[in-house]
């Protein structure tokens, strides 16, 4: 009888925790503008460095907080149900960026039209939201 009473108490506590988690809407996962310094090296067919290009690139990033919780559970072996949520990209977009500061292996700035810049493809978040941590199936 005491065991059943304890399980009932845990169920009630679980319901209170779940209700508290659903009421608080303090998630703030956002897609924010950012800037990164990007460096790309280019090698010839036998592995010798041909040029290094770099530049400041404006990109989006995911940032913010998501509701996570630990609640008592009579079902799990540990006695607690853990639900962790993380802010990350829900969709990536691909775009081309141009790096305009290019140098030869000796550090000399390249000025010829075919070598003074480098186009590279990158993927950045176009939308962010909260996902269950460790869930990479999307």
Description:
The protein is built from 1 helix and 7 strands. It is of the alpha+beta class and 138 residues long. The protein has one domain (2-132): Cystine-knot cytokines (Cystine Knot Cytokines, subunit B). The strands form 3 sheets. A 3-stranded antiparallel β-sheet has the order 1-2-6, with no helix packed on it. A two-stranded antiparallel ribbon has the order 3-4. It is elongated. One of its GO terms (cellular component) is bursicon neuropeptide hormone complex. InterPro entries: Bursicon_suB, Cystine-knot_cytokine.
List its salient traits.
alpha+beta; three-stranded antiparallel beta sheet; two-stranded antiparallel sheet; Cystine Knot Cytokines, subunit B; about 140 residues; about 50% strand; 1 helix
- Major beta sheet summary: 3 strands, antiparallel
Fourth-tier CATH superfamily name: Cystine-knot cytokines
What is the count of distinct domains? 1
Q: Strands of the biggest beta sheet: in what spatial order?
A: 1-2-6
* Assembly level: single chain
Can you give the mean pLDDT? Answer: 83
CATH fold type: Cystine Knot Cytokines, subunit B
CATH class call: Mainly Beta
Residue fraction in strands: over 45%
Span from first to last CA? 45 Å
Keywords: Signal
Protein name: Bursicon beta
GO molecular function: G protein-coupled receptor binding; neuropeptide hormone activity
Organism: Carabus violaceus (Violet ground beetle)
């Amino acid at each position: 009888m005491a065991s059943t009473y304890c399980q009932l108490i845990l169920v009630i506590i679980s319901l209170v925790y779940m209700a508290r988690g659903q009421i608080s809407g303090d998630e703030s996962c956002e897609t924010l503008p950012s800037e990164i310094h990007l460096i790309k090296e280019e090698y010839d067919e036998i592995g010798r460095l041909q040029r290094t290009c770099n530049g400041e690139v404006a990109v989006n990033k995911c940032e913010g907080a998501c509701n996570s919780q630990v609640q008592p559970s009579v079902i799990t072996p540990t006695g607690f149900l853990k639900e962790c949520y993380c802010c990350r990209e829900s969709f990536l977009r691909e775009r081309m960026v141009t790096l305009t500061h290019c140098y030869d292996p000796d550090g000399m700035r390249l000025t010829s039209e075919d070598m003074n810049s480098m186009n590279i493809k990158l993927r950045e978040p176009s939308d962010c939201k909260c996902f269950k941590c460790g869930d990479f199936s999307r």
